[in-house]
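Q: Could you write out the predicted structure for this multi-component system? I'm mainly interested in how the pieces pack against one another.
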Amino acid sequence: MNVSILTPSGPSPLDSSGGISSQQQLVMPGQVIPTHSGYMRGHGTTEENGQLIATVCGLVEQVSALIYVRPLRSRYVGEVGDVIVGRVDEIGNGRWYVEVCSSQRAQLHLAAINLPGSVQRRRTEEDEKEMRRFLAEGDILSTEVQRVQSDGLILLHTRSAKYGKLENGCLVQVPPQLVRRQASHMVNLPCEPPVGVVLGNNGYIWVGLPQRESARDTINYALGEVTYQAVSPPQRQAICRVRNCIAALSAHYLQLTPQSIMDVYSASVRGKLEVSSLTNPEVVRDLIREYIKTKT
Amino acid sequence: MLSQSTLSPAERRFLEDGVRQGFRNDGRGLLDYRPYTVETGILPSTSGSSRVRSFGTDVLCAVKVDMGSPPADKPDEGVVSVNVECSASVAPHGELEGGSSSRATGRVGGGRRDDSGEGWSAYLGALLDDLCLPPCALDKKALCVSPHVYAWHVNVDILLLNAAGGVLDAMSLAMRSALRDTTLPSVSVGSRDEWEEEDTADGVQQSKPPFDVDERPTAGTPFPAQDIPVCVTVGQVCSHYVWDMSSEEESCAEAQVTVAVDRNGRCVAVHKSGMASIDPTGLLQVLKDAGRVGVELIKKLEAAMAKLGTGQPVVRERLGFMAA
Amino acid sequence: MDAATYRPLPPDVPPAPTVSFGAAERSDGRTNEDVRDIEMQTGPISSAVGSAFFQIGKTKALSAVYGPRQSMRQARTSSSGAVNIDLKFAPFAVPSRTSMAERERYLVGMLSEAFESIILVERYAKSVIDITCIVLEDDGGVLSACFNAISLAAAHAGLEMTDIVTATSLYCMEVPSDTSQNVVYLSDLTAAEEACWLSSGQCTEMHVGIATSGSSICFLHGTGSLLNPTCAEQLLGRAEEICRAIGKEMRACLKAAYAASQNAAPAKTTATE
């Protein structure tokens, strides 16, 4: 039995050091963004009297001619190609409505998934009635953003071997800004035993048994193939430790990458910390302090 | 935020298997509690206040004392009333409401609270009053200043800022710490011949003695809060008893039992909720464990409050109103 | 509950409010133009997308922003988003435990009108943004305190807005002097001062919300007999000064919060393949 009561201990260890790096410009709503001619206006900005004005608190980013402001906190804003972990909220009209922590629910159309048996054909009414067999309300799945409409509606697809229903694990929720686009979002972390992680750009992260490598051709994957597997105690320990490490990084607003998660994991193992002790904010603070020291 | 009470069958199976193995999603054992963070004395305009946080659950409690008349049927007792209010983001089952049709879009006349939200708050307040302030735990006679004439009316207001599991437990901790932070001012009531005659609305003459209040905090007496119990809630998940549940675990629990335990480990109240029934042997074990857990919680709470200087009249250095 | 009501007061009970000309002091030592000390903080409620605590003098307001999130009602009725503000007074915010429902509704109405023009709702199609605001203590100036708390919470939450908007409350009244009636301008009344002057009807009040990068007025509500151009000019001029000062503090507060989180992130990398 473990019971503890803490008193507040002031700011976290990351508050004291200097300012923002000079390459990144922090702007606030109403602030003018210096531009060159021929720019394209992106998210988080507006135009007034020929000037580009920021509309959110965030950092100015530029990708070729596109200038936008990336808010440091907000709900998820979809972009084509993002990997998303979502929860099915409702089924109807030949599509699944998926909750992705954005201003609207995303949609996954029946035509955008692979059918079992690797068949390529038009979807029929039977398929619509059978939609619940593939994905029911409450199910969690990994998908990719196919398209974002002008009103912000996100359209998803799972036409690839790696996407589909997620089983044998648990979900962690973090601010979407902490998961940037990276080389691979679905990774098996080299823990002892290995742990599978799916990092959704929308801030939902799935931690569970390692993903099976599908031996079959990517097009032939079917949603219904993932099954329940018993999780052994050592596997469960590793999964829960990873989950707590992700929560620790998120509590201190640190970027989540397979590398950063593994570093914190290793630090916690080296420090011989019990998995449950990682629920204690003071223990987490010390662990993150150590992790930052190893990075700098 | 996503409604945590909808879990996929996959997550449910993972969680339940973990419970069977004695290893929960965050690595805790079935009897382990998440750490609480407690602060007291954060609202200087009240008689006593506290804030209790635990992994998302956030409770603010304020105590105000007023001088009033004792109730007609109990002329030698004071009155304590508990009032719970939920922040609008917290719906009856702990999920965040989104676009509920009972709320107007904030124009004039909007801002009404969802009716079931208010009902839930009222129920929580009554439950907390019943579980944590029974006669054996709080001697209301100590709140009486002059029988039939003057008694303290103590208003305990609890604000639930966010719910993420273990709401009753956090509220009881907040209430106990706020009451421990409360000082009842010293009052001297005038003698019989000093009573003044007063004309009331219906012309009947009533006499009320004058009273003098000594404003100095050092002259007051602490509120008699030492015997107030705390609530410990346990849930039944797949025939195992799980303590201090997260909101995911709460959605998997078939039944919940809340036990109010005082500092000596005595159980003073018990309440069951949820749809399933409980096996009596299991319940007896729960009561035993609750005794141990409650004693530990109160011991650690007292230690934290000693560190914060709760109930002492000196001005303490505070880390801002809402310390991290 | 009848008989006398006792409320514990700090040892130094302030004397009755006074006002006079020039630099003479009000009961709490301020001049007529001084605004009380301000304290603000972002992120007190970590479970919300954005949150803020704003304190002016003893008046305290706590605001949190949830969303934007899907709203079926919004999807059906209009193509833009909606802002839903829920404001309540904590039961311990005022000395007497009367129902504040009417006052809450009125404040919500005004704040909603203001923020639906400040937050770019057309960019949140079919969604609703839920904003809660709790008044933890009312010592005067509640409307502007709530306004500032909500504004800071919205900025913290990364909502798209036209500008950082802050608000203040200003008052003026005619006070007889030796020779004639003179107009006295006051900033930021405490609850005792509000009770003394506002109910008598002699005092003109004006609540102003100003976009602090430009100087445009986003929120304006005034009542009283002295709303002539001369007085209005004085009031608005003073309002602009005060709002800009609060805006500067808000920017510093947001910058500090973001600097803390940004420090911890590794150096910016370009998007990987």
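A: Regarding packing and overall arrangement: The first helix of chain C runs from residue 72 to 77.
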